[in-house]
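Re: your question about Antifreeze glycopeptide

S., sorry for the slow reply, the queue was backed up all week. Below is exactly what I fed in.
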Amino acid sequence: MAFANAQAPVPLFLKQEAEQNANSQPDATAPATGGNSGPNSNFGQGTGTLPDTFPSDPDAVQTVTLQAVDAEAVGTLGRERGGFGADMWNGTSRETAARLLTDLPAMPATHTGRDLARRLLLSIAAVPDDHKEISMLETRAAKLINMGELDGAIDLVRATPQGARGSLLAQAEVNALMIAGKLDDACAAIDGYSNNFDDIFWLKAAVMCALHANDRTSASFSTDLVREMEGETDKTFFSLVSAIRNGSAPSQDILNSLNTLRPIDIALLEIAKQSIPTNQLETGNAAAILGMINARATSTDVRLEAARKAEKLGLIEAAQLRKIYSDVSFDADAITNALDDAPEGVQARQYAKLYQAAAKSDVAAVRAEILAALYESATINGDFVQVSRLTSDLLTDIPVNSDFSWFAIDALKSSIAANNMERASGWLQTAKNSSNPGNDIESRLILLYPVLALAGLEDTGTPTATEMADGSNGSVTVNLPDDGATTPVRYGLGGAVTLTPPAKTSAPMNDAQAKHRARMTEWQEMDAARGDQIQAKRDSELIFSLFDGFGIEVPIALWDALLTAPYLDERQTVSTAVNHHLETAAMNMQRGKTVALAIHAQQVAGVPNGDPKDLSDAVAALNHIGLNREARRLAVEILMARSQ
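Result:
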């Protein structure tokens, strides 16, 4: 963990941000079950007094919140750009906040989790006033580098006043530039910082820059200084420097020993015109994967596979993957016969060929046919969600009408996976209109129904926040049908539900509720017919748990069908402490802490035996603090990834 003692006057933009937040915040003195109630308002069943939150009066916020602000409160995201607000660490100690950020996963299990982490690290926010020796700014910059969020790290450092940048913060900027292969920019930054710091890092950086400039005399002098300061303990550094000076390749032993490739190693390999060892693709090291993409010595096929993995992990955007795929050279005949020729030996190369073939087709029907083949191949290889992001620009040119009814389900799923819900809605209507006994559209829509419900594309009859809060003091009245076919709904973490027994005066279930229950029963029957009953049960548990996080009811008969031995199961789950703090942080609208813990909880989505209850709690917590869109996107992404 990094430490610093920089202090500076409160920036005007932060004061304005705090004032805006204060004006938009609900009254923190209101009861937890009062006017702030919503689908996930009641987290837990306890009645204890909640910790105090910042007052909503603007003057009070200025005197309470801004006293805790120092130069490290800078960021690049205000609320209007996706930040979580100047008071997001309200009620959280600096020590806890720094620990939560340091421990964020370098590779979040979902793109939604990664987006939340990036926004958390880049948000403009007041820093808690305790433990001032802890540098939140250095912690944030280090985690951005660790995650491969290079542009974010550079922007964060450059948003910091020059006088407040310590050595570790300056190193973060230089490391990001070296990983990105921007050695000219890195050396310009190194030159600018060279008189401020005397750490060994800067001596090694000076060697790199001298070699980059082909200044052998300066490189030799700085190398000798490194040797005097720490001997030759850094064998990788000295081996790479020697290879560059001698015009030879680094020893294979050194290359094979590079378990964790550092930014300085990536830069020296670039100067040596040596490719990064391909085994680095399997290390999960963001710097190495990005280095492979950016290095000039990387072969085309390795770059393609590195880019494929990088986009899947969220290290690069789909737009960059499109460019990399578009830059691959294919014979004109290979593009023309892309559907008929044998597939390429490298999977990413096959995707690139089909993407180019679809992009170059001016006939919508031909493009749809190529996209359908691309989606089929991607599904087999577990890449459907990624390929949906890749092709989202091409899919927009396919007319949404009955002429493409054969393509409607593929287009619907791809639009959902790419988070284009407006277009997905059009394809859903096309599919419904085209369904008949002569095709399988209806059965495919049934299997897709849980995703459609979580994406908000189907009306499940779930009460709105307004309906739930109206006269219920935050609880919900659920009318049970005579056959008891529905389960009580929790509406989030431990939310209370008041059950009204059937009575002649009870309002009948609405059409949406009836359709939802019937659809879920149809889905369960089709899912139960699968050959892998263990996986079918796990999928059901996941879907029902996610429904629970959104207050979407599940017919009790469906839960009953899962109540079979064995009753003990081996699951990977977050710790009880995470569960506890996630619930209490969400209850108290501690946005920073809630988001950090939700990111940890969603990590179980990346393991085959993850506990779905953790995912339910994560989406419920996000819903409770007002991140409803992010909660939906997380749930849909998890289900889409599982279904592929």
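The two ends are 39 Å apart (CA to CA). The chain has a mean pLDDT of 83.

Happy to talk it through on Thursday.
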